[in-house]
Design a protein that fits this description.
about 35% helix, single chain, seven-stranded mixed beta sheet, globular, five-stranded mixed beta sheet
Length: about 550
């Protein structure tokens, strides 16, 4: 292989990151830029695709991710992004998705829940495409968001719109001018089903028959697998924006969580004595843990898991079926619980005093504080014996698939000390881990045989979060050698597009690396079995309370 490099660009909820990556999967340089989020109304979260593209260019060009290599040595570039909805007019100019009419704000974010009522209506149709999304249409998928725009912003948005992109496809279009969509986005978020394609009857049944026009040109007529080379590579304009050579290969994009999966799931695990060793990669589940968490499992045959999205063919690894579970708020929930507590100011001050020079964050401080609170020789986990959290403060994505569910906390005392804050933080992390167990149980019942967890994303850097996931699920947790596995996954797309690797699988094996393994504490098995029973009862009780209050 000719010596070269690949650029991976990752658009998360709050920032754009880029990395220069070697053929062996090492990150040479990285850069990051924040992006804007607006919340014009409750449950409405919007962004600007112009701002996002500008920040993509900034992290690659202005922050000089590729400064130490000649442009000709950058063999390919890949993009991943959140599954947000971008709206453009016939001239490819932004169209506002808000009632204030601000044209810059043309992107409905993935976590925008404005379309809950539309999602419920789509679910009530019982259409066959729902079997590919766990039987329930989520407000985080694109059909209900499109329906909301038609019903609420018909003149100012719907009638002007000529192109609806998933954000990852918008980025690859900006880079290449190609309107070909990635199967990752269309299959996972839009109900596209290869090889048949779009189901015209579905769109007509929900009142969006106008999308059928011109062979579905508004939402995508041509598709390809992730990592496929697009168009003629970078256009002259995009190359100038990114300070790369025109024609540099661009791989069909991925949703950000799926890029994390690609950057981890194929890693060589020989010598780590894991239960998934000598097993197909279908024995592995990847968790991409950040603002939210996605649980990615693959199978050789389609498996239908109630409340879990999929099965989606070739949505992450070509030729394999993907099931995607998830939690809509994880990092965001931990932050909400910690920053909203009465002792948060004290926590900030204590953390500054203990780590005045190293800049350790408040979560490292909380982890240490919990260790001091635990009695000699006792596990930190046991401190959560009498405080229990149901974590669905932003609804349940999987496996209950009910966006109307709310959060619950049981066991609060009449005090707001730093100890109380630390215990609430612990109970929240434990609840998120038990939510993962809930998803695992649903996948297992449907036929998955998952033996090892692979974690990446911001929360995978939190040692307590990782250890509790191992303890609560009883499974070993693998962490990547390069902590930014999502950027590795994006670079894999560029590597495949450059044709330096013959398949995505080959690129994954060469570029994904195991860092370390965290084993579960077997002595805590009984504790988490009891705590999981409480966890499930919290769900049953919430529904019981709802039923009581709905009585007339």
């Amino acid at each position: 292989m000719a010596e070269g490099y690949y650029v991976g660009v990752d658009v998360g909820s709050n920032s754009v990151r880029a990395a220069l990556v070697t053929p062996g999967g090492l990150l040479e340089t990285t850069a990051e830029e924040p992006i804007s989020i607006w919340q014009p109304l409750s449950h409405h979260f919007v962004q600007s695709s112009t701002d996002i593209w500008d920040k993509c260019c900034t992290v690659v060009k202005v922050k000089r991710v590729t400064q130490n290599v000649e442009k000709s040595r950058v063999r390919g570039i890949g993009f991943d992004a959140t599954c947000s909805l971008v709206v453009l007019d016939q001239n490819f100019q932004p169209v506002s998705v808000s009632q204030d009419g601000d044209q810059r704000r043309n992107t409905v974010m993935w976590m925008d829940h404005r379309a809950e009522e539309q999602a419920a209506r789509i679910t009530s149709t019982g259409h066959r495409v729902l079997s590919r999304v766990g039987g329930v249409m989520s407000p985080e998928l694109q059909p209900p968001k499109l329906l909301w725009l038609k019903e609420n912003l018909r003149e100012s948005c719907w009638d002007k719109a000529a192109h609806f992109f998933d954000l990852p496809d918008f980025l690859s279009w900006k880079a290449t001018g190609s309107l070909t969509r990635s199967l990752c986005t269309l299959v996972c978020k839009w109900t596209y089903c290869p090889p048949e394609g779009w189901d015209a009857g579905f769109w007509s049944s929900i009142g969006l028959e106008d999308l059928l026009e011109n062979n579905f040109s508004k939402i995508g007529s041509a598709t390809c697998s992730p990592g496929s080379p697009l168009g003629g590579g970078l256009t002259q304009d995009a190359a100038a924006d990114l300070s790369l050579q025109p024609g540099t290969a661009v791989g069909a994009s991925l949703i950000d969580a799926h890029a994390g999966g690609l950057g981890m799931i194929g890693a060589d695990i020989k010598g780590f004595h894991l239960p998934c060793e000598d097993q197909p990669i279908t024995a592995r589940m990847v968790m991409i843990c950040g603002t939210s968490t996605c649980h990615m499992a693959i199978s050789e045959q389609p498996l239908f898991v109630p409340g879990v999205w999929g099965p989606c063919l070739s949505a992450m690894v070509p030729g394999l079926w993907l099931n995607e579970g998830g939690q809509s708020a994880t990092g965001r929930l931990i932050e909400h619980m910690v920053k909203g507590h009465g002792a948060y100011t004290q926590l900030q001050e204590q953390a500054r005093q203990r780590f005045p020079h190293t800049g350790e964050n408040i979560y490292n401080y909380l982890n240490n504080h919990l260790s001091f609170m635990a009695t000699s020789g006792s596990s930190v986990d046991l401190l959560g014996s009498s405080l229990h959290v149901w974590p669905d403060f932003h609804g349940n994505r999987s496996p209950v698939a009910d966006p109307s569910l709310k959060g619950m906390v049981i066991g609060l005392a009449l005090s707001q000390t730093l100890d109380d804050l630390a215990l609430l933080y612990l109970a929240t992390v434990q609840a998120l881990a038990l939510g993962t167990l809930h998803i695992l149980e649903a996948m297992k019942e449907a036929g998955h045989d998952i033996r090892t967890l692979f974690l990446c994303g911001g929360l995978s850097k939190n040692s307590l979060f990782v250890q509790i996931h191992a303890n609560a699920t009883g499974l070993p947790v693998v962490l990547p050698e390069q902590l930014e596995a999502v950027l590795i996954g994006a670079a894999v797309l560029g590597a495949c597009a450059s044709q330096d690797y013959s398949t995505v699988q080959e690129a994954m094996e060469r570029m994904a690396k195991v860092g370390r393994v965290v084993q579960p504490d077997s002595e805590l098995r009984g504790f988490y079995e009891r705590k999981y029973k409480v966890f499930l009862r919290l769900l049953a009780h919430q529904r019981e309370y709802q039923a009581l209050m709905n009585q007339r």
